[in-house]
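Sample entry was shown:
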Amino acid sequence: MKSLNRLNLLNQFNMWRLAMVRWLALSVLASLLTACAGFSSGTLPAAPALAASPDYNYIVGPGDALSIIVWRNPELSSSVPVRPDGKVSTPLVDELVAQGKTTTEIARDVEAALSKLVRDPVVTVIVTGFVGPYSEQIRVVGEAAKPQALPYKQKMTLLDVMIAVGGLTDFADGNAASITRTAAGGERLSVRIKDLVKRGDISANVEMRPGDILIIPQGWF
């Protein structure tokens, strides 16, 4: 009887040890797969859902629409477009460079120009129509449904860009697409648009940067 009990205990111990070995093997395999996925060469990391982006100030460019408000002087306030030469004209200010500046910088320039004619002017500038300078735009070329240039927005992701351009064409090779990052000296980075758009793989979503060029090639059939 004692021998039978010992045999049962030994069998139970062996089964427990085998289960522990299997659990450890699966844990090691999962860790290796995670590490390999994190070190994929030539690709961008997924866009974090709640990551804090660095401070970004919008830069005005030709084609933008500006609302220039002069406090207590409605006759001097106006809504004006930024001309192709990057300048604007407002009441009492014939020529003012707006391209390449923030709204705060433009407001201070208008105040400086008006101060020669108005006592202590207080100016606020609001962008009501966004285009942005070429250096800040996101350009989408190739097999997008609607290839175009988009104004960059803070925390913009690849998914936002694909929604704006209407997705992929039937001939696109989305997983062979790439982003040329002009802000990083033309660095080229691979992206997986097909996995993101067609399969809903959110890990393929990446963060965009001002001046990025998204290139979507045609697939070989």
Notes: Residues 2-38 form the longest helix (37 residues). Helices lie at 2-38, 103-114, 158-164, 193-197. The chain is about 30% helix and 20% strand.
